Automatic annotation (TrEMBL), chain A:
NCBIfam families: PRK12665.1 (NF009308). Keywords: Cell membrane, Membrane, Transmembrane, Transmembrane helix. It comes from Marinactinospora thermotolerans DSM 45154. It comes from the Bacteria. This is Multisubunit sodium/proton antiporter, MrpD subunit. The lineage of its organism: Bacteria, Bacillati, Actinomycetota, Actinomycetes, Streptosporangiales. It is a multi-pass membrane protein.
UniProtKB/TrEMBL annotation, chain B:
It comes from the Bacteria. This is Multisubunit sodium/proton antiporter, MrpC subunit. Pfam families: Oxidored_q2. The chain crosses the membrane at residues 6-24, 31-49, 69-94. It is a multi-pass membrane protein. Keywords: Cell membrane, Membrane, Transmembrane, Transmembrane helix.
Length: 555, 124
C-alpha cells in the first residue's frame, strides 16, 4: 500500500481539471450533471487529501515525478505534512462552499447562464490551489498561482454587474503585479542557482552570496505578501472581495490569502533562512494585526468588516513564521487551518444574513436573533471562534502562538504577544458590534426588510418590483450608479435577490457543516496540534523533503 | 557581459520604468498597458539569466554550443499566461468604460463614507 501512496499526489490537481473539462464539454444542457460531477470530484479530492494526510504523516513526504522525468529535469509534486494538511482543509472548505452555492443557485433559479461557467471555473480554482500546495518546483508554484488567479478573476466578475467589474479590475491589476514580481524573482533565483527545483534550491541557496540571497528572499516575500494581504500590501483586499457573490467571497477569503501564507511558510523554511528577515516579518505582522483590526472596527458593512478581520488575522500567521521556532511554526500551521474554516463560515453566514435581512450593513439590520434564531447560532459560534473565546480552536491557536512568542523571549516577541492580545480583544469588540446591531437590538420600524422584498443591485435603481426573475438582466445598462454603496446583494449571475424567511436546506446544511468543522478543530485539537508540531519539525529540518525528492542525493 | 546581453539589460530597464509609470496612471486603459509592458519586461529578464542567449537552445549547432532551454520554456509559459490574462483585462476595461464612458479608477467610496462618519459626532 505504501508504495502506491505517492500515485495519489497528482490527483488533487488532475481530477478537478478533468472534471472542469468534462463540464465545459457538456455545456449548459445538463445543469444537474454539473452539480453531480462537481460534488463527486471534490468529495474524492477530500478523500485523497485525507489519505495523503495520514500517509505523509506515517511514511514521510510523498513525491511524484511527473512524466517519469527525475527531479532536477522533470517537475516534482511533493505532498509533505504541510501540503497534505492544506490540500485536505481546502478540499473540505471548497466542498462546503460548493454545496452552499448549489443551494443558492437553486433558490435564485439562475441555473442556466452563470452556473454553466461557475462550476467548471470553480473546479479550476480548486486545481490551481492544489497545484500551488503540491508543487515541488518554484515555477510550478507560479503556474499554480496563475491557474487559481485566472479562475478567481472570472468568479469575481461573475454576472458582470458594474460594481463587480470595477472591483474586479482592481483585483486583477494587483494580482498581476504580484505575479510579475514573482516571475522576476524566479528569473533571478534561476540565474543565481541554475535550478528552480525547491529541494535542489534548499541545497544550493546557502552557497549563494549573502546579499544576493537576501534580495531573492525579499522579492519572493513581497510577491507572496501581496497575495497573502500582509500590511502594507493589503489595501486591495477589502475593496475587491466584498462585491463578489457570497460563496465566492467566502472561498476567496478563506483560501486564496492562505495560499500566499503557505508560500511564505514554504520559502522561508525550505529555501531561505527565516532568521534573516525575522525582524521585518515581526514588524509586518504587528502592523497587519493592528491596522487590519482598527479598519474592521470602523466598518458598518459586515462583509467589509470581515474582510478587515481577515487581513488582521493574517498577522497571526506571519507572527508564527517570523518566530522561526518549532512552536511558532506549529502555531502558524494550526492557525492557518483554523482560520480558513472560520473565515469561510462567517462569510457564508453573512450571505444568509443578507438573504434574511436584506442588507449586510449593520445600520439596516436589527433583531435578527428573534427573527431567525438558527441564523444567530450559525453566526455566533464561528464569530466567537474567530475572536478566540476559550475553549475554541481560535483560542488554542492564539495561545500556541503567544506561548511561542514568550518562549522566544526577545523584546520584539513580547511586543508581538501584546499586539496579539490587543488584536484578539478588538476582534471580539468588532464581532460583538455586529452581534449587538444585527442580532440583539430591537429593530426599529421598517428596518429589517420584509420577506419578499426585492433588493436592489447597483444596476437597477428604481424600477421592477416584480422582475426579480426577469428573463434577462441588463448587465451594462446606462442607469448604473457606481457611486452607490458597493457590495449590494445579488445572485451569482448578478440578478437581484428576494429576501426570505426560509433558506434552502443545502445552504443551511453547508453552513452548519462548516460551523461543525470549526468546532471539530477544538475537539480534535490534541491530535491536530501534535500534527502541526511534527509539520513544523519537518519544515525546519528540511532533510525529509530534500531526501524524498532526491533519494540518491542532490547534485 | 556581451553586447546582446547588454542591449537586453537596457531594454528591460526601459520597459520596467515605462511599465511602472503607466501603472501609476489614473486611467484603467493606461494601467492595462502598464501591466502588459511589465509582463514583457519580466519575460525578457527571464532570458537574461543565460549568457549564451543568442544561440539556439538546440543540440548540434555548428560550434557545438547551445543556450539553456529552460529560460526559454519558462518565458514561453509566462507569455501565454500574460496573453490570456491581458485579454481578460482588456475586456474588463472595456466593460468599465461602457458603464459610464469613463475608465478612471474611482476613489474608494466606502472608505470616504467611513471617514465622513467621524466628522459629526456619531452615535456609534
Amino acid at each position: 500500500m505504501e508504495s502506491l501512496l505517492h500515485y495519489l499526489v497528482p490527483l488533487p490537481v488532475v481530477l478537478p481539471l478533468f472534471a472542469a473539462g468534462l463540464e465545459f464539454a457538456l455545456g449548459i444542457r445538463a445543469p444537474r450533471l454539473h452539480k453531480i460531477i462537481s460534488v463527486t470530484t471534490l468529495t474524492v479530492v477530500l478523500a485523497i487529501g485525507l489519505v495523503l494526510l495520514f500517509g505523509s504523516d506515517a511514511h514521510g513526504p510523498q513525491v511524484v515525478h511527473v512524466g517519469g522525468w527525475e527531479a532536477p529535469i522533470g517537475i516534482a509534486l511533493v505532498a509533505d505534512r504541510l501540503s497534505a494538511l492544506m490540500v485536505t482543509v481546502s478540499a473540505a472548505i471548497t466542498l462546503g462552499v460548493l454545496v452552499y452555492s448549489i443551494g443558492q443557485g437553486m433558490a435564485d433559479r439562475d441555473e442556466v447562464t452563470p452556473l454553466a461557467v461557475y462550476h467548471p471555473t470553480y473546479l479550476i480554482l480548486v486545481a490551481g490551489v492544489s497545484n500551488a500546495f503540491l508543487a515541488g518546483d518554484l515555477f510550478n508554484v507560479y503556474v499554480g498561482f496563475e491557474i487559481l488567479l485566472t479562475a478567481s478573476y472570472v468568479l469575481l466578475t461573475l454576472g458582470g454587474t458594474q460594481a463587480r467589474i470595477r472591483a474586479g479590475a482592481t483585483y486583477v491589476v494587483v494580482s498581476l503585479l504580484s505575479s510579475v514580481v514573482f516571475l522576476i524573482a524566479i528569473g533571478l533565483v534561476y540565474a543565481a542557482t541554475g535550478t528552480v527545483n525547491m529541494a535542489q534550491l534548499a541545497v544550493r541557496l546557502p552557497g549563494v552570496p549573502e546579499d544576493l540571497r537576501l534580495v531573492l528572499q525579499v522579492m519572493l516575500l513581497v510577491a507572496f505578501a501581496i497575495k497573502a494581504a500582509v500590511f502594507p500590501l493589503s489595501a486591495w483586499l477589502p475593496d475587491s472581495y466584498p462585491t463578489a457573490p457570497a460563496p465566492v467571497t467566502a472561498v476567496f477569503a478563506g483560501l486564496l490569502t492562505k495560499v500566499g501564507v503557505y508560500a511564505i511558510i514554504r520559502t522561508q523554511t525550505l529555501l531561505f533562512d527565516g532568521e534573516a528577515v525575522a525582524d521585518l516579518l515581526m514588524w509586518a505582522a504587528l502592523a497587519t494585526m493592528l491596522i487590519g483590526i482598527l479598519g474592521a472596527v470602523a466598518q458598518t458593512d459586515i462583509k467589509r468588516l470581515l474582510s478587515f478581520t481577515l487581513v488582521s488575522h493574517i498577522g497571526y500567521m506571519v507572527f508564527g513564521v517570523a518566530l522561526t521556532s518549532v512552536q511558532g511554526l506549529s502555531g502558524a500551521v494550526f492557525y492557518v487551518a483554523h482560520h480558513i474554516t472560520v473565515q469561510t463560515t462567517l462569510f457564508l453566514v453573512t450571505g444568509l444574513i443578507e438573504r434574511r435581512g436584506g442588507s449586510a450593513s449593520m445600520d439596516d439590520l436589527g433583531g435578527l436573533a428573534k427573527l431567525s434564531p438558527l441564523l444567530a447560532i450559525l453566526f455566533f459560534v464561528p464569530a466567537m471562534n474567530l475572536a478566540g473565546i476559550p475553549p475554541m480552536s481560535g483560542f488554542l491557536g492564539k495561545l500556541g502562538l503567544m506561548q511561542a512568542g514568550v518562549q522566544a523571549g526577545t523584546p520584539l516577541a513580547y511586543l508581538l504577544v501584546a499586539g496579539s492580545v490587543l488584536t484578539s480583544l478588538l476582534t471580539l469588540y468588532a464581532i460583538a458590534r455586529v452581534w449587538n446591531y444585527a442580532f440583539w437590538r430591537a429593530p426599529s420600524e421598517g428596518m429589517v426588510a420584509e420577506p419578499g422584498t426585492v433588493l436592489e443591485t447597483s444596476e437597477e435603481d428604481d424600477d421592477s418590483a416584480t422582475s426579480a426573475y426577469g428573463p434577462e438582466e441588463e448587465a451594462i445598462g446606462p442607469s448604473s450608479r457606481v457611486d452607490t454603496v458597493v457590495g449590494r446583494t445579488a445572485t451569482l449571475g448578478g440578478r437581484t435577490v428576494v429576501t426570505t424567511t426560509t433558506f434552502p436546506a443545502t445552504m443551511i446544511g453547508a453552513t452548519a457543516g462548516l460551523v461543525a468543522m470549526g468546532l471539530a478543530f477544538t475537539v480534535l485539537a490534541g491530535p491536530l496540534i501534535g500534527y502541526s508540531q511534527r509539520t513544523a519539525e519537518e519544515l525546519l529540518d528540511r532533510s525529509p523533503y530534500v531526501e524524498a525528492v532526491f533519494p540518491e542525493g542532490v547534485a | 557581459m556581451n553586447t546582446p546581453g547588454l542591449i537586453l539589460v537596457v531594454c528591460v530597464a526601459v520597459l520596467y520604468s515605462s511599465g511602472f509609470y503607466l501603472l501609476l496612471q489614473r486611467s484603467l486603459m493606461r494601467v492595462v498597458f502598464g501591466i502588459l509592458i511589465l509582463g514583457h519586461a519580466a519575460n525578457l529578464s527571464l532570458l537574461l539569466t543565460d549568457e549564451a542567449i543568442t544561440l539556439p537552445p538546440l543540440l548540434g549547432g555548428p560550434s557545438g554550443e547551445m543556450s539553456d532551454p529552460l529560460p526559454h520554456a519558462m518565458a514561453l509559459t509566462a507569455i501565454v499566461i500574460t496573453f490570456g490574462v491581458t485579454t481578460f483585462l482588456l475586456a474588463l476595461a472595456y466593460r468599465v468604460w461602457l458603464g459610464d464612458e469613463n475608465d478612471e479608477v474611482p476613489d474608494d467610496v466606502e472608505d470616504r463614507r467611513i471617514s465622513r462618519l467621524t466628522e459629526p459626532e456619531d452615535s456609534s
